[in-house]
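Bench log, entry 3. Co-assembly request; chain sequences pasted below exactly as received.
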Amino acid sequence: MNVQTPIRLTAAEESLAAQLESVGAGDAAVRFREAGLPTRRVEAYHYTDLKVLLSEVPPLAEAVAGTGAPVFDIPGAYRIVVANGVMQNAGTAPAGVITGKVGGSTLTMRDDTVVRLNSALVKEAVNIELAGSVDPVIHIDRRTDGDAAHVATGSKITVAPGARATVIETVATSDAGHMGNLGTYVALGEGAEVTHIVVDLSATQATQFSTLEYRIDANAKLMSIVIQAGANLARAQIFANFVGEGAHGDFFGLNLIDTDQHRDITLDVTHGVPNTTSTELFKQIGRGHGKGVFQGKITVAKDAQKTDAKMMSQGLMLSEGAEILTKPELVIFADDVVCGHGATCGDLDETWMFYLMSRGIPKAEAETILIRAFLEEIVDAVEDEALGEALSGIVDGWLAQGA
Amino acid sequence: MNGTAERAENDMTTPMLEIKNLHVRVEDQDILKGVDLTLNRGEMHAIMGRNGSGKSTLSYVLAGKEDYEVTEGEILFEGENLLEMEPDERAAAGVFLAFQYPIEIPGVSTMTFLKAAMNAQRKARGESELSTPEFMKAVKDASGLLEFKQDMLKRALNVGFSGGEKKRAEILQMALLAPKLCILDETDSGLDIDALKVVAEGVNKLRGPDRTMLIITHYQRLLNYIVPDIVHVFSDGRVVETGDKSLALELEAKGYADYESTDAA
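Structure output for the full assembly:
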């Protein structure tokens, strides 16, 4: 028998193991004690070494009453408040929406520490069933209040065949070193059309993990947007599976990174059946000593002929100390596919700056115009006007902070 | 930048632009080797010369592009040292360069850009910003003059514009910003004869007693439609000949060979 030497656990790892034990997840705790947090030796965490980056884990959250105005207000939206992981009374749901709770995590088990923690720690998740097309935007407003707390939450969104809906999930916290672990599972029935947006606006001391899982059935159309504008350490993982022919997905993401912050978006798209298409556009902008990571993997299964996937990642570094890391990966087993990826990274284009300035626009204003143009491409993808404006507000807020 | 008050004190006899013994180096190469030029108010000058003679370098130096090192000489704009001003300050003071290759900027609509430019210049001159109706009217009037399609204003700046549309957009900007000194760098390149006529007509309408124009070209063709008062021949980084408009026709007939320095041959 092969006896492994136990690894030395960091204080954060000890806390997490104890938390797993405290909720009765004994097996998960044993496994976690054996493996610890992923380090750079784990491929998927190569640029986000959690053993190094995660120095402290706050205690598991206690329930609080979620009151107060949302940090992110979308006029006309149907809002479901989740306070410290507990769903509050959501009010009357619009026609076609059934809201409720589902026990435990909604994520599919996979070999990933963040997913395993979510699976073991989530007690109840928001359950939304969309039976038909829904006009109002559905807003899941997650907030963590009080002292620093570790909150594991989840959502399950099931969209009936042919239904159309827009769902946005926001994460916000009080000013403390919280740690969030959100796991959302979205299933699109045949021909469904869904826009799903996740925005992290956590306090700058916080840590936020978000795992999004999509199951996309035949002829369905998904638009997924992830915006990470908060937390000191944030990592979003997106796992998307095309399971029916004729489906299409547009995946967008944005990392807004200030000094000393670390943001990671890791995308894993699988075209498992023939005739599915996708586009991926991920942008990162860094100031100060901010560090941004994008890992994008597209897998085309052996039978998935006629797959068409185009991935693009763009980085804009506004300071000498900013760092952008990008790793595209295409794994193609079929022979009749169109798959491509591109990446750009750099400073603001000097010739663009000169052109704007030669027309009388001062340097700082010219920079703002170009940065906004870079960022707005993601926000412009959103059809709903009120929602688009709310997302533009995040970009404006970020620009104003740096001014 | 100095205030407008000081500039207003300059009497009308101060030249619009004075270039004195200008030497410019780009990437360790001497491109301009002692340019002397004086442009008075209301005059239309043309600079003609072969490709590589330094004409475009001169236009970029006037507009303030980085990486152009002035090693000797000076440039006075209405008596003030132009080289000390940033590109945006030069624009606000009244210098405008119509680019040979207008820059495409994705994500920035032409309309947003025009409004930002007009208001930035107004602000720099201490004037109030234009209201949206005032701005729209100004754009509409100028677009009509240049046969510039309104729907193009919604598109990203110069992105997907044809060669002719780009040049028209440059002249549209010129009309809206109403500069004192217009530098047109190879404005005729890439234009068919119909587009050339429209652009030339637009430029001619902008001529006036307080506006000075400097047309840079290597073909005489444009000068059939925009008739200069004074023509300069550029060769090897300096002005080698100055004359009236007949000089352009002479060049067209004989070519530039007479002006090439013997050691360059």
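Residues 110-124 of chain B form the longest helix (15 residues). Confidence is low (pLDDT under 50) at residues 1-9 of chain B.
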